[in-house]
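User: Design a sequence. Structure:
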C-alpha cells in the first residue's frame, strides 16, 4: 500500500477529491492511504500563526520555517518517508515518468505551498523533491496535490479494473493515446474505422500504434524529439 501525507493550511479543500471515483476505489481496496495534515496544528502562538512578512520587504506573506519544521519532524518520528515533496511552480514539471516512479514508493509527504511560498530554509534542508504541474501559478499547492495523488494512485496495481488500461495511457511511451471509439458503429454519417470492427487483434494493434504516432507528430512533436 502507498501512504501519502498531505500537509496543508486548508485541509477542507482536500477532503472531497479523495472520496470519489478511482481514488476512493484505491482507498477502499486498501491500496492507497491519503492523510490530510493541518499545518495550523503546528502554528505559533494562540492564533496558530504559520506565515509572516518576508525579510527585505515586498508584497505577500511567506510560510514560516518553524511550523513546517515541527510538522515534518513530528511526522518523521512516526514514519519513514521515501520522498518529501514540495509542490511549487518552479519545481520539476510532473510527467508520466515521474508519476510511474513515485507510484513505486511506500510513503510520501506532500507539502502544499501558499502565499508567496515557503521559507527557503525548508527547501534547502527538509525537502527531497520539488514538483510543478505546469508553468502557471495557483492560489495554493492543494490543487497540485490532488493532481499528483491522482496521477500516482491510478497506477497502483489493482486500482484499475483493467491494469493494462494505464499502460496504454498517453505519455507512457512518449506517445499520445490513439483515437478511441464505442457504439454505435455509425452515427450521423460518421463511421468508426473499419479495422476496429475486424476482430483482428494484431492489425488493430498495428493501427493503434500508427495512429498514436501520427497524433503525436501532429499535436506534440516535442515528445518524439525527447526520445532521441
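Assistant: Done.
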Amino acid at each position: 500500500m502507498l501512504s501519502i501525507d498531505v500537509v496543508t493550511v486548508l485541509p477542507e479543500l482536500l477532503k472531497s477529491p479523495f472520496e470519489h471515483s478511482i481514488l476512493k476505489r484505491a482507498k477502499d481496496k486498501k491500496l492507497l492511504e491519503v492523510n490530510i495534515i493541518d499545518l495550523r496544528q503546528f502554528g505559533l502562538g494562540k492564533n496558530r500563526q504559520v506565515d509572516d512578512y518576508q525579510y527585505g520587504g515586498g508584497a505577500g506573506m511567506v510560510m514560516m520555517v518553524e511550523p513546517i519544521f515541527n510538522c515534518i519532524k513530528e511526522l518523521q518520528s512516526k514514519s519513514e518517508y521515501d520522498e518529501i515533496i514540495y509542490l511549487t511552480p518552479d519545481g520539476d514539471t510532473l510527467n508520466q515518468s515521474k508519476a510511474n516512479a513515485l507510484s513505486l514508493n511506500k510513503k510520501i509527504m506532500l507539502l502544499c505551498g501558499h502565499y508567496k511560498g515557503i521559507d527557503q530554509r525548508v527547501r534547502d534542508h527538509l525537502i527531497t523533491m520539488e514538483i510543478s504541474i505546469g508553468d502557471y501559478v495557483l492560489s495554493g499547492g492543494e490543487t497540485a496535490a490532488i493532481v499528483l495523488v491522482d496521477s500516482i494512485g491510478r497506477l497502483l496495481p489493482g486500482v484499475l479494473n483493467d491494469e493494462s488500461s494505464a499502460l496504454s495511457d498517453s505519455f507512457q511511451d512518449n506517445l499520445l493515446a490513439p483515437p478511441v471509439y464505442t457504439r454505435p458503429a455509425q452515427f450521423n454519417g460518421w463511421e468508426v474505422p473499419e479495422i476496429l470492427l475486424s476482430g483482428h487483434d494484431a492489425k488493430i494493434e498495428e493501427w493503434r500504434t500508427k495512429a498514436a504516432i501520427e497524433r503525436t507528430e501532429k499535436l506534440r512533436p516535442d515528445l518524439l524529439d525527447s526520445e532521441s
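The chain has a mean pLDDT of 93. The two ends are 35 Å apart (CA to CA).
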